[in-house]
Amino acid sequence: MNLLLDTHAALWWLSDDPTLSASARAMIADPENTVFLSAVVVWEIRIKQGIGKLDLPDDFGEVLDSQRFPELPVTVDHAHAIADLPSIHRDPFDRMLVAQAIVERMTIVTRDKSIAAYDVNVIVA
What's this model's pTM, rounded to 2 decimal places? Predict the structure, then answer.
């Protein structure tokens, strides 16, 4: 299965936060699954860090690099897919993650109920 981590799920995984559900943790850890990290997630994390809403270790980039997560860039197809989404969620980062999941046929790991309202597969983080 191809999984796409929402920002909070990625942060919980990276920090080994017990908030991440056992089922999500097992799916992320399962070597049979491919877990993707979207550029959108890193972008959101760095914005939150820049405005003081998130503290990150100095070696955060290295921590990300040490994961087995392939990068998922934002493509023109992903951007076009936004036009087909109903206006359920207002957060542009989350809307892009939904579009990416739809275009790439991925399951999103998230705790966000608004994302679950879209026609996309979700694993509860």
Answer: 0.95
